[in-house]
Structure to design on (414 residues):
DNA sequence: CGCGTTATTGAGCCCGTTCAACTATTGTGG
DNA sequence: CCACAATAGTTGAACGGGCTCAATAACGCG
């Protein structure tokens, strides 16, 4: 699991977005450095894809029928990112702290969760501070809302770094917007296999 | 001037981004409707570009030398949008109300302003409520901060819908991050002329 | 001018922050 | 394995920034 981060002059940090294992990070143009960096919350393997490479691949295989496939997939990936950012803008701009945390837990459940009957169990690979920096809050607030959710039995916290949601629909009903369900893994894997062999790969590990 | 907007079930609104006249709105995929809509704050002409059209254009003119031009430009446009969203995420997540408003005024100065010597004069085509919904605040807060900036002589408000900044650098020094300077109009116009004749155009007017 | 809309200003409140103390967990060396 | 330290998380008290509600003022338009 990785985070795209931005820092302010006085040390404040904002996490722009989170990516689950198997996901595609995008928006890092090699040219102008926007001051953003990537942090990994667990051991991670990164593959870097130059847009040029994809474009060349596209040009080489320019059969009128399927020549657009790579480009179309790339657009779809970027579009997903745009959608994620959009919904996170709403989260930061218009949701209160409880709504933010609730949405976060449900989103993690969708992206990382293991279904156990109706419930969902999630192993959380990040600290309270990381969550806070993602949601525009601080660690104490995260902690307080977690205990509130625990007391109301909407969420269980078996350990410090895991939780489970007995009735996801009931939690979702507390939100003023549907939980965004974005891309399925199938699409992603199709895309990745299309690019197989066209990415320069290397390892990156943190901690 | 247009705004991309999203609404919550209880009426809250968040403006995701603003586009100046001559700019390129993007991220509206025709397929799944994400619940977003576009509002125009002044008389506006919209041109709709189907990605398919651009892709076809690309395929038709697939001379190995310049065939990538359209696609590359499209990527650059989407990337600009991604950068804008990124910096706005930081704004909503980690800046306090004064910083948000200051950044907003400087951004408008860059994108809409008429330089007058060292100063910049800006005609603002949106209401306090629109500004509030863009910055994740409410109208009263916007108003209060405007009067505070006026009293400190950092900003002048000759009329309800215009302002001018005597010393932009001094204002900028109050921010914990550089004001993002994104795309120049030259690039945009180059791109638009590339697409000339390939966009289905229609008029859209509000109010 | 008179009316409706938009903006400003004030008083009071509440949510989320800050600061501090405490608890629980993880890791390390003896 | 335990002792201990370092880190991460929780909880409480008090503060304050931004919100809510209400009244007033300024503008735009017939």
């Amino acid at each position: 699991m990785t985070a795209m981060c931005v820092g302010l002059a006085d040390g404040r940090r904002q996490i722009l977005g989170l990516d689950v294992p198997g996901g595609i990070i995008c928006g890092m143009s090699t040219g102008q450095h926007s001051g953003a960096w990537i942090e990994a919350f667990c051991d991670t393997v990164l593959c870097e894809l130059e847009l040029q490479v994809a474009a060349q691949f596209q040009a080489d295989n320019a059969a009128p029928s399927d020549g657009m496939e790579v480009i179309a997939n790339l657009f779809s990936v970027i579009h997903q990112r745009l959608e994620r950012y959009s919904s996170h803008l709403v989260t930061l701009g218009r949701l209160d702290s409880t709504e933010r945390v609730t949405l976060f837990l449900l989103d993690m459940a969708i992206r990382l969760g293991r279904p156990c009957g109706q419930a969902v169990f999630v192993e959380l690979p990040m600290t309270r501070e990381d969550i806070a920096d993602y949601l525009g809050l601080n660690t104490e607030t995260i902690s307080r809302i977690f205990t509130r959710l625990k007391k109301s039995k909407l969420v269980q916290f078996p350990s410090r770094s895991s939780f489970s949601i007995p009735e996801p629909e009931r939690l979702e009903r507390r939100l003023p917007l549907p939980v965004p369900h974005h891309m399925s893994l199938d699409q992603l894997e199709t895309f990745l296999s299309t690019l197989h062999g066209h990415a320069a790969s290397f390892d990156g590990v943190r901690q």
